[in-house]
TrEMBL record:
<keyword id="KW-1133">Transmembrane helix</keyword>
<keyword id="KW-1003">Cell membrane</keyword>
<keyword id="KW-0811">Translocation</keyword>
<keyword id="KW-0472">Membrane</keyword>
<dbReference type="InterPro" id="IPR022646">
    <property type="entry name" value="SecD/SecF_CS"/>
</dbReference>
<dbReference type="Pfam" id="PF02355">
    <property type="entry name" value="SecD_SecF_C"/>
</dbReference>
<feature type="transmembrane region" description="Helical">
    <location>
        <begin position="18"/>
        <end position="36"/>
    </location>
</feature>
<keyword id="KW-0812">Transmembrane</keyword>
<protein>
    <recommendedName>
        <fullName>Protein export membrane protein SecD/SecF C-terminal domain-containing protein</fullName>
    </recommendedName>
</protein>
<keyword id="KW-0653">Protein transport</keyword>
<dbReference type="InterPro" id="IPR022645">
    <property type="entry name" value="SecD/SecF_bac"/>
</dbReference>
<dbReference type="InterPro" id="IPR022813">
    <property type="entry name" value="SecD/SecF_arch_bac"/>
</dbReference>
<feature type="domain" description="Protein export membrane protein SecD/SecF C-terminal">
    <location>
        <begin position="111"/>
        <end position="173"/>
    </location>
</feature>
<dbReference type="GO" id="GO:0015031">
    <property type="term" value="P:protein transport"/>
</dbReference>
<keyword id="KW-0813">Transport</keyword>
<feature type="transmembrane region" description="Helical">
    <location>
        <begin position="139"/>
        <end position="156"/>
    </location>
</feature>
<dbReference type="InterPro" id="IPR048634">
    <property type="entry name" value="SecD_SecF_C"/>
</dbReference>
């Protein structure tokens, strides 16, 4: 049974220089973008800090939430929508306060603009800086071990140069 009457023939190797140049350009743009924006942005799990998830009865305006939180001086914090339009995530980089206190402070600072019954603190999570650093180091080590395992297996099963090509492709992707 024939699926195609005429099988198209493409000479992919003829276009390899264009593909290589395009791939290198995209990688270079990505690296420059990371450097311009101040490096990689790690989550709370890897950096340490506190996360407060709020649920509002009606969708809040993020600028109003940001203005309300300025009064409690959370330091370097990020506010963003999470999931639906009614959920807000507040990420605080460092905090010496207890979890319950942070959640209560955040809620109380927003009561002026939104009624108390319209705001629910769904969760408050904290990761210490030491735990975040330890987790980041272990993640990097696990990546290194995985790469070593891939190189050993592909070298044993096929050839070493295929292993190097596989790692380059993995890093590229």
């Amino acid at each position: 049974m024939e699926i195609f009457k005429r099988v198209p023939e493409f000479d992919f190797m003829e276009k390899k220089n264009i593909a290589t140049a395009l791939s290198c350009a995209v990688i270079l743009i990505g690296i420059i973008s990371i450097m311009i924006h101040g490096g990689l942005k790690y989550g709370i799990d890897f950096e340490g800090g506190t996360l407060v998830q709020l649920k509002f009865k009606n969708p809040p305006i993020i600028e109003e939430v940001r203005d309300g939180l300025r009064s409690i001086d959370l330091g370097d914090s990020t506010i963003q929508e999470f999931g639906s339009k009614n959920h807000i995530l507040v990420r605080v980089e460092r905090s010496e306060e207890k979890l319950e206190e942070i959640g209560t402070k955040v809620k109380n600072s927003l009561i002026e603009k939104y009624q108390a019954e319209n705001i629910v603190v769904e969760r408050v999570e904290m990761v210490g800086p030491k735990v975040g650093k330890d987790l980041r180091e272990k993640a990097i080590l696990s990546i290194v071990y995985a790469i070593i395992g891939i190189v050993i297996y592909i070298s044993w099963r096929f050839e070493f140069q295929y292993a190097i090509a596989a790692i380059i492709a993995l890093i590229h992707d």
